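Supplementary Methods, section 5.1.

A reviewer requested that the exact input to the structure prediction be made available. We therefore reproduce it here, unchanged from the version used in the analyses.
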Amino acid sequence: MRKNKYIEPNTKINRWTVKKRIAKLNKSNQAMYLCECECGTIKQVAGFRLRNGYTKSCGCLARELSSERFTTHGLTKHPLFSIWCSMMNRCYSRKNKAYCDYGGRGIYVCNRWHDVSLFIKDNSHLAKKGLSVDRVDNDKGYFPSNTRFVTRKTQALNRRSNVNITYNGVTKPIFEWADDLNIKPKTLWRRIRQLNWSIEKAMLTPVKKYRYSTIIAEQP
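The structure derived from this sequence is encoded cell-by-cell as follows.
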C-alpha cells in the first residue's frame, strides 16, 4: 500500500494553510490535516484532496466567484462572459450539476483566468459564434495550452463518456454513428448499453415518431 506523503506544517496550498497532521485516517485510509482557510475557517481536510487541488478553500472561493458574476465590469454582454461563468461554476461550485465531473475530480481553472477580463483578452481572437470552450486533455484543467474553441460535435467526441463502436468493419465514436444515422446519441447509447441490443439492431431500428392529437372538449 502506498504511504501517504507527509505535508509539513505551515505549508500553503491554495487558500489552505496546513496547521498539523491529525492522528487519525479517514475511511479511505488517507491522512487528515487540520487546516486554516484564508477567511479564518478551520477544518479537517484529507491530504490527497490538498495535494491534488480537489479542495482549494472552505467554500469561500466558490462564493466569491459566484458573486463576481454580478459585478459591474462592463463585460457581462461579451459572448465569452457566459462561457467563463459556466467554466468557473463547473470547477468551483458544488451546486453545479456537472461539478462531480470537473471540480470534483480535480479539474481547475488557471489563476490568470479567474479574472474574467483576462480570460476574454486571451481568447477573444479564438472564440467564434457556434464554438464552445473545450480541453484538449480531459484529465487536465483550463489553461492556455490545454484549451481550444470547437464545435459542439467536436466537443462531444472528446468527452470521457464517448465510446467507439464497430459496425460492418468500420469503427467510429458513438456520436459520429448517431450523426450518420440521424439518431440522437443518447438513443443509440441507451439501445446498446441499457437495453443490450445488438449493434445491428441498434443501428437499423427506426426511431418511433409519436403523434399528438389535440382533444377539443364538446361544448354543452
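The first strand starts at residue 12 and ends at 13. These observations are discussed further in the main text.
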